[in-house]
Sequence to fold (768 residues):
Amino acid sequence: MPTTQEAVNMADLPLEALLMHAGQVRDQGHGRLVSYSRKVFIPLTQLCRDVCHYCTFAKAPREITAPYLDAEQVLAIARAGKEAGCKEALFTLGDKPELRYNAARDTLRAWNYTSTVDYLAAMADLVFRETGLLPHLNPGVMTAQEIAQLRCVSVSMGVMVESTSTRLGEPGRCHHGSPDKAPRVRLRTIAEAGRQRVPFTSGILIGIGETRTERIESLLALRRLHARYGHVQEIIIQNFRAKPATRMADAPEPNLAALQWTIAMARLIFGPEMTIQAPPNLSAGDIPALVAAGINDWGGVSPVTPDHVNPEASWPHLGALTRETAASGKLLVERLAIHPPYALRGDDWLEGGFRMPVLDAIDSDGLVRTDGWSPGVADNAPPQLISSPGLIGDRKLDGLLSGVAAGRELSEADICHLFAARGGEVAAVAQAADELRRDVCGDTLSYVVTRNINYTNICTYKCRFCAFSKGTMSENLRGRPYDMELDEIANWAREAWVRGASEVCLQGGIHPYYTGQRYLDIVGAIVLHVPEMHIHAFSPLEIFQGAQTLGVGLEDFLERLMRAGLGSLPGTAAEILDDEVRAQLCADKLSTTEWFAVVDTAHRLGLKTTSTIMFGHIDRPVHWARHLLRLRRQQIKTGGFTEFVILPFVHKEAPIYLKGASRRGPTWRETLLMHAVSRLVLHPHITNIQGSWVKLGPEGLAAVLDAGINDLGGTLMDESITRAAGADHGQEMTPAAMEALAARCGRPVRRRTTLYGKMPGTGCRVSA
Fold:
C-alpha cells in the first residue's frame, strides 16, 4: 500500500491510468465478485443534536409524529424485511437527540430508558430475538461504555468519518454547529470500536467543501486506525446530493469523474483486500463507471424500505443491479451485515449469541448461503441450481476445464477458481467432470457389499466434530459407551458373510486400554471364523497409535497386520489434510505429515488404502485445494489409493456445531462442486470417485452421479458414526436398493470387490 507521499503523488495521475490501476488492485483481492447486503432500514429516530447543512434525515420534533419508533413499529418493519428475504436490520438514527430535545428526554424517561443508545440496544436485541435479522447499528459518536453495550446486540456498527478537515466545522461550513462531526471525536469512536473488536464500517462524504488533499488525508486517517486494529470491514465513498430546504440546496454536486477519482484513490490507499463501497442509488445509470473505479460492494440494498437518508434516490431493483453488475464484468453476490473475513472468524469478532446464527447463514466463503440444504437431513432434497440473471461468462473457468481435458494438471489457484463457480457455471464444472468420468470409467456404477463394525466408541481423543466417540463414563449424545468382545466382532463378520458381504470395514475410537495387539487380535478373530472375508480396517490414526503402543515402527506393525490377514486400510482420520484446519478441528490427532507417513508406508508395503475428505465445517476452499493436491502428490508417488471418498460434514449432533463454532455443513453448490472438482484434480491418478449415501441420502447421491461419480460406496449394514452425528439416513442400503437407484438414474451397475476387482459368483450368499 502506498505511503502518504506516494498517495499524494498518485493523485496527479491521469484519471484513466488511475482507474486501470485501481481495478487491477481490486481484482487481486476480490476477483469478479461484487457484494451487497439485503437489508431493512429502521430509522429509530430522526431527531439529532447536530445541524449538518446538507441533511434532510434529521427533523425537529414538530416535523415528526413521535420522537422514536416504538417497539411495535420497529418489529413491523423488521418482519416485513424478514418476509422479503432480508438478513440485515440497519438501525439509523441521529446523534444523542436527548441532549437537545425535551421530547426525546421525556419519551425515553417514560419508556424507562436512560439514553437513545440504551433504547437502541433494547430494540436491536428485540429485532434479533423476534426475527433473526442481524443488527447493524449507526448511532453516531459513542463512548467506550456505549460501544460495549451495543456490541452485545449487533454484528457490526458504523460511523462515517465524512471528513477529517477541521475547516468544515468553521462558521458557514457544512459541519458548523454539529459537535459530533468534529474529526477527533469521530476518529476516537472508530478507534474505540477497534479496541473492542467491533467489525466496523466507515467512509467519507465527498462534495461538502473538502479538497482532494483532504479526502486523501481522511482516507489515510482511517487506514491508520485499520492498520492498528484490523476492524474496518468497509470504506464507503458517498457522493453529496443537494437537497431542497437545506443550506446546501444550491451547492454543486460532485461529478462522476470526482467520484471515480475518490473511489480509485481509496482502493489504492487501502489495497486489494479492503471492501470499497459506493451506494448504487446515488449514482443511477453509472454502475459500470463505479465498478471500473475499483469498488467491490454496493452496500445495503433494501427491497422493503427507502433510503431514509437520501429518500429521493430509490434503491435499484436487485434483478437490475445483478444485470448491470454483470454488464460490468462482475458477479453480484449476497453478504451479511458482517463481512466475510469477520463472519468466518466469529470467535474473534462476535459476541457469543451471534456466532451460531452467523455461521448458520454463511457458506465457506463467508457469503450468504444460497440454499437451505445440509448433509444428513432426510427430508431436505437437493435444490436446483439456477443461474443468476445476467450471470457473466467466465473465460478463465472455460480455459481450466478445457485444460484438464487436454491433460493439464490444476494448481492451487486453479482449484480455488473452480470452487468459486456459481449459478450455471456449477453445471459446466459438473459436466466436464462427468465427461471425464465417462472416458475413464465408463457408465457403469459400482458398489461393494460390506458391513461396518465400529468395535468401540470409547476414545481418548477430543476431535471437535465427532459425536460418535465417548469417554468411559459418558452417556451424552447418542448411546452408551461400549467395547465389543472379540467373539462378538467375529460373529458380526460371519453374519455379514452369510448375508453376502465380501468386506468388513472396522474402525473405532482410540480406547485408552488398546494396544496394537488388540488390532492384531481383531484381525485374527475374523480370519479364524471367516477366512475368505476381506478385512478393510483401521484408520491411519489407529495404525499410528497401535505402532506406538507396541513400541515398533509403522512398517513393522503394518507387516504384522498383513500377516494376520489385514487386506486394506480406510483412509479416514483425514478430515482436512491441512494443519491450519487440524489445529482447530482435531488438535490432538495425527498431523498431516503423520497421516501421510502411515499411508505412504502402507502403499510401499503393497497395502492399498482409500482416501477421504470431510468438508464443510471450519474449512475454506483453499484448504480443500491443498488437501486434493497432497493426495494427488501421494498417488503419483506410490499409486496406493483405490478411491477418493467425499464426506460432507454432518452438523446436527457434532460438538463443534452445538458450541456454535462451525458451519452447518457445506451448501449444495459446494457439495456438487466437491464431487466434480475432485474428479478433475485427481485425474488420471485416482480414477474412482465415491459419493456417500450416508451423508447425502439416496436423493443426494443420485443428484451427484452426473458430477463425476463412478462408485456408490458400500451397503454398510450397520453404519453408526454418521448416525451419531445426527444424520437421518438409514444404517444400510441393500444391494437391491443400490441397483434400483442406479436403474432410476439410467446407469448400469455392478458389484465389486474392495480393491475394485470383479466380484466372483456368490451363489446362495447373494442377498437383497
